[in-house]
From TrEMBL:
<keyword id="KW-0378">Hydrolase</keyword>
<feature type="signal peptide">
    <location>
        <begin position="1"/>
        <end position="23"/>
    </location>
</feature>
<keyword id="KW-0732">Signal</keyword>
<dbReference type="InterPro" id="IPR036573">
    <property type="entry name" value="CBM_sf_5/12"/>
</dbReference>
<dbReference type="GO" id="GO:0030246">
    <property type="term" value="F:carbohydrate binding"/>
</dbReference>
<dbReference type="GO" id="GO:0005576">
    <property type="term" value="C:extracellular region"/>
</dbReference>
<dbReference type="Pfam" id="PF02839">
    <property type="entry name" value="CBM_5_12"/>
</dbReference>
<protein>
    <submittedName>
        <fullName>Chitin-binding protein</fullName>
    </submittedName>
</protein>
<dbReference type="Pfam" id="PF03067">
    <property type="entry name" value="LPMO_10"/>
</dbReference>
<feature type="compositionally biased region" description="Low complexity">
    <location>
        <begin position="188"/>
        <end position="215"/>
    </location>
</feature>
<feature type="domain" description="Chitin-binding type-3">
    <location>
        <begin position="218"/>
        <end position="264"/>
    </location>
</feature>
<dbReference type="InterPro" id="IPR003610">
    <property type="entry name" value="CBM5/12"/>
</dbReference>
<dbReference type="InterPro" id="IPR051024">
    <property type="entry name" value="GlcNAc_Chitin_IntDeg"/>
</dbReference>
<dbReference type="GO" id="GO:0005975">
    <property type="term" value="P:carbohydrate metabolic process"/>
</dbReference>
<dbReference type="InterPro" id="IPR014756">
    <property type="entry name" value="Ig_E-set"/>
</dbReference>
<dbReference type="InterPro" id="IPR004302">
    <property type="entry name" value="Cellulose/chitin-bd_N"/>
</dbReference>
<dbReference type="GO" id="GO:0004553">
    <property type="term" value="F:hydrolase activity, hydrolyzing O-glycosyl compounds"/>
</dbReference>
């Protein structure tokens, strides 16, 4: 029986452990990180024994016009293996798909299919996209467990990138961008507890860490810090350089976000 797992969206906004730029006709790479595509799940080790795709989720590039999950590439055939019991992300009926592009390239269109039905198309008019691209797609006609095929059509080559995303549509969730970690919820107070806290105590749940404007180069990566382009951090014993200025949240660790961090 297949699983239908409501993975926290932020946790599985992932990529491979480093930045891979392999040679190819399009010289562009990308994958759907949220909700997690099959290659994102492999890169996060949420699905075991995926083979080489776990190290390069952004590399499923094949000729345009295909309708499979692996782009016709034999080394990534596991992505089209329906016996792998792919976890399905529970979402609402309108879903925001987020692409992480580790190498950008001129784009003709982005397409989304459920079965043989093209449910959405976005025309980029041969422009170069940002490193993170999002599309909001109405999937209200398709309830229950579905496999969405997302395709990035390159603008000036005959190639495209292929991603399959398993969803439980109408199963809850918004499919939006990863939120910051929610603040801890206070436990219920006894009925005899005072109705208000002393003036010296906070009146609400603890606040999230405030971003630091001046991180020290080479320090350990941590959430709640504002990094600028060129800042260097250490994570799990490896050094990374910031590629885009941003304020960190949990699940955006350098190993999971090659669009933000370049492994050194």
């Amino acid at each position: 029986m297949r699983r239908s797992l409501a993975y926290p969206l932020a946790v599985l906004t992932v990529a491979g452990p480093t930045l891979f730029v392999t040679a190819g006709p399009a010289a562009a790479h990308g994958y759907v990180s949220s909700p997690p595509s099959r290659q994102a799940l492999c890169a996060a080790r949420a699905v075991p024994d995926c083979g080489p795709i776990q190290f390069e989720p952004q590399s499923v590039e094949g000729p345009k016009g295909q309708r499979n999950c692996h782009g016709g590439l034999g080394q990534f055939a596991v992505l089209s293996d329906e016996s792998r019991d792919w976890p399905a992300k529970s979402v609402g009926t309108t879903v925001t798909f987020s692409w992480t592009l580790t190498a950008r390239h001129r784009t003709s269109t982005w397409e989304y299919f459920v079965g043989n039905t093209r449910v959405a198309v976005f025309d980029d008019r041969n422009q170069v996209p940002e490193s993170v691209v999002t599309h909001r797609v109405d999937l209200s006609r398709f309830q229950g467990r579905q496999k969405v095929l997302a395709i990035w059509n390159i603008g000036d080559t005959p190639m495209a990138f292929y991603n399959c995303i398993d969803l439980n549509i109408g199963g809850g969730g918004s499919g939006s961008q990863p939120p910051a970690d929610p603040a801890p919820q206070p436990s219920s107070a006894p009925s005899s507890a005072p109705s208000s806290a002393p003036s010296s105590a906070p009146s609400s749940a603890p606040a999230r860490p405030q971003p630091s404007s001046a991180p020290v180069n080479g320090e350990e990566w941590r959430p709640g810090v504002t990094y600028k382009v060129g800042d260097v951090v250490t994570y799990e014993g490896r050094r990374y350089r910031c590629r885009q200025g941003h304020t960190t949240i949990r699940s955006w660790e350098p190993v999971f976000t090659p669009a933000l961090w370049l492994a050194l």
